[in-house]
Fold this protein.
Amino acid sequence: MFVRTASERDLVAIRALLVETWHATYDAIYGAERVTAITDDWHSIASLKARLTRPNSEFLVADDGKRLGGMAFAAATTDPKIVLLHQLYVHPACQRQGIGKALLDEVEVSFPEARTLRLEVEEANAAALAFYEANGFREAGRSADCGGASGMPALILEKRLA
């Protein structure tokens, strides 16, 4: 798979990847009904389309020419030295093949002024926590409202960038 910038023609495939990945990851934590409601909101085509044109951001996909294996979206905060990784998801059938690392590496080089990469992660998502810790992230705090307006708690992880 190669990493490239997402385009509008990718949005249907990105949404499908996110819905499937979210159900595989979060049904056991939140229940299928809540996951469907979240994905219908957060991962709607309109929501994804808005990210394509967001200033100071990078929207990436991992593509093998036949299907998308993963996606990532990150954006600079009001402080250009801090970048927030909003999303990094790899399709369940494509996990543990280096796709998440490739997406993360591309996010890091996409923001040359950044000194900190920050993200929020569900504490019960052990696979994601292990991935981020293996890639240099450390706990920096907690949030009672993951993503702002969800009401779901999350760990805040940060990685210092060179």
